[in-house]
Design goal:
Number of helices: 13
CATH superfamily of the largest domain: P-loop containing nucleotide triphosphate hydrolases
Structural class: alpha/beta
Oligomer: single chain
Number of strands: 15
Largest sheet: 9 strands, mixed
C-alpha cells in the first residue's frame, strides 16, 4: 500500500513542478493541452505511457481545471464536497460523510482552484470579502470562507445539483415518505393549503419542496423565489426569480424580501419560496392571507413548533412596528400544515412528522396528524374541522 501512496505523492509533486514550468514559459497562446503533453514527454520520458498520461491529466487539472476536485465532481455518487484547508477533503455519499482520497498540495493550489471556480461567475474572494456564496452554471452551490475568518486555511463547500430531482413517487421508493403520506400531501397541495417545510441543514427540505410542487395543477401560474436557484418545477407556467448579492462595491443587492413583494404584482396563483430566512417572512405571511392560497416555503427549524416560532421571529425582523400578538395571529391564519423533515440514523432523509396548525391561547400551535415512531408511520385524528381533518376524511 505504501509504494502506491508514495507514487501518488510523487506524481502530485511532479505535476505541481511541471505546472510551475508551464506558467513560467513566456510563450503566449497556443494549444494548452498540446503544450502540457509536450512538456511531460520532454521532462518525464523515462515513465511508461500510462503514467505519462496520468501526469498529463494532473498537470491539466492544476492548469485549467479544479485540481484535486475534478474526479470528485465527475463522480455522480458524490452529493457534497467539503474542503477543510489544503490537507483535508471530505465528501458526502448517500447521506454519509467519508474522507476523500485526494488532497491539495498546499494552500496556494487550493486558492488557485477557488479562483478558477469564482472567476467565470464574476465573483471574487479576498481579505476585504472573505465570504462568498455562489451558484455554478450547473446549479451547484458553492460556499467559500478564507482566512482570517477560516483559521486553518480556505474552506470550500460544493453542494452538487441534481439536474433531475426526485419525483414524489421516487421519494416513496426512497423511504422519504410513505405512500399514504404521498397521497395526503398531494391532496393538500391540490386543495391549496399553505404548507411550511421545516428541518435542519441538509435534511432534504428543498427536495421535498420540489416534490410537493409537482402536485400543483398545470394550469396555474407559479412564481418561485430563491436565494440560490435549486427548484426545478415541471409545470408549463413557471416564473423563476433569484436574489442577487451586492457587488464588490456594495451596490445592486436584490433581497428575497423585495422579490416576494414584487411577486405579488405578477399575478401568481402560487408563490413558492425556497427558504424563508429574513424579514421576507412577513411578506410571505401577507401573501398567504391575501388570496395566494397554496403557497409553499421552507424554514430551518428543529421541529414544527420551532418552525412557527422562527417564522414569527423573522417576521418581526421586518421592523414595521407590528405588535407581536398581531404577527402571531397572522401566522395562525396563514399556515395550514407544517411538514417536518430530518436525517435519520444511517443518513437517509425522512419526513418524520406532519402537523396541522391550530389556534391556542395567545397564537398558533401545532398538533401532529402524522409521525414516524420507532420506524413506523402513525396517524392521529386532527382537531375540529380544519383543512387536515377534511383531507383525512376524504374531502380534499
Amino acid at each position: 500500500m505504501e509504494p502506491a501512496v508514495d507514487q501518488h505523492a510523487a506524481l502530485d509533486e511532479l505535476a505541481a513542478a511541471l505546472r510551475a514550468r508551464l506558467l513560467a514559459d513566456p510563450r503566449p497562446g497556443g494549444d494548452a493541452a498540446a503544450r502540457i503533453r509536450a512538456l511531460v514527454d520532454a521532462e518525464a520520458a523515462v515513465l511508461d505511457a500510462a503514467t505519462r498520461e496520468e501526469l498529463v491529466r494532473r498537470v491539466a487539472e492544476r492548469s485549467f481545471g479544479l485540481g484535486a476536485l475534478e474526479p470528485l465532481l465527475a463522480d455522480p455518487s458524490v452529493d457534497e464536497v467539503m474542503v477543510n484547508g489544503a490537507g483535508t477533503v471530505w465528501v458526502e455519499r448517500e447521506g454519509r460523510l467519508e474522507p476523500a482520497d485526494v488532497a491539495f498540495a498546499g494552500e496556494a493550489e487550493l486558492r488557485h482552484a477557488i479562483e478558477r471556480i469564482l472567476a467565470p461567475l464574476g465573483r471574487r474572494v479576498d481579505e476585504a470579502e472573505p465570504l462568498v456564496d455562489a451558484r455554478l452554471p450547473d446549479g451547484s452551490r458553492v460556499n467559500v470562507v478564507i482566512p482570517p475568518l477560516a483559521l486553518d486555511g480556505p474552506v470550500l463547500t460544493i453542494r452538487r445539483f441534481r439536474r433531475r430531482g426526485f419525483t414524489a413517487r421516487e421519494l416513496v421508493d426512497a423511504g422519504t415518505w410513505s405512500a399514504a403520506l404521498h397521497d395526503f400531501l398531494g391532496a393538500a397541495v391540490r386543495a391549496r393549503l399553505n404548507i411550511l417545510v421545516s428541518g435542519g441543514t441538509g435534511s432534504g427540505k428543498t427536495t421535498t419542496l420540489n416534490a410537493l410542487s409537482s402536485f400543483i395543477p398545470a394550469g396555474e401560474r407559479v412564481v418561485t423565489i430563491e436565494d440560490t436557484a435549486e427548484l426545478r418545477l415541471q409545470q408549463p407556467h413557471v416564473v423563476r426569480l433569484e436574489a442577487r448579492p451586492p457587488s464588490v462595491e456594495g451596490r445592486g443587492e436584490v433581497t428575497i424580501c423585495r422579490l416576494v413583494r414584487n411577486s405579488l404584482r405578477m399575478r401568481p396563483d402560487r408563490i413558492v419560496v425556497g427558504e424563508v430566512r429574513g424579514p421576507e417572512a412577513l411578506d410571505m405571511l401577507g401573501a398567504m392571507t391575501s388570496g395566494h392560497d397554496g403557497s409553499l416555503c421552507t424554514v430551518h427549524a428543529g421541529s414544527a413548533e420551532e418552525a412557527l416560532r422562527r417564522i414569527e421571529t423573522l417576521a418581526l425582523m421586518a421592523d414595521v412596528g407590528l405588535p407581536h400578538a398581531a404577527v402571531r395571529e397572522q401566522v395562525a391564519t396563514a399556515v395550514d400544515l407544517v411538514v417536518h423533515q430530518a436525517r435519520v440514523p444511517g443518513g437517509a432523509r425522512q419526513v418524520v412528522g406532519v402537523s396541522e396548525v391550530v389556534r391556542v391561547a395567545g397564537g398558533p400551535g401545532t398538533r401532529q396528524v402524522y409521525a414516524v415512531r420507532r420506524g413506523r408511520p402513525t396517524w392521529r385524528a386532527p382537531l375540529g374541522d380544519g383543512p387536515a381533518a377534511r383531507l383525512l376524511a376524504g374531502g380534499g
